[in-house]
Amino acid sequence: MRKCLLVAATACFAVSFLTISLKAQQTPPTQPRVATTGQPAPQPGLNAPRYGFAVVDVSYIFKNYQRFKAMMDQMKVDVEGAERTLSDERNAINQEARKLEAFKPGSPEHQREEERITELKTKFNLKMTKQRKEFLDRESKIYYQAYLEVNDAVKYFALRNNIGLVLRFNGDPVDSNQREEVLRAINKPVVFQNGVDITPDVLRDLDRGRPAPVGSVPVGPGIPGKQF
Question: Which end of the chain is more exposed for a tag (fewer CB within 10 A), N or C?
Answer without folding.
Answer: N
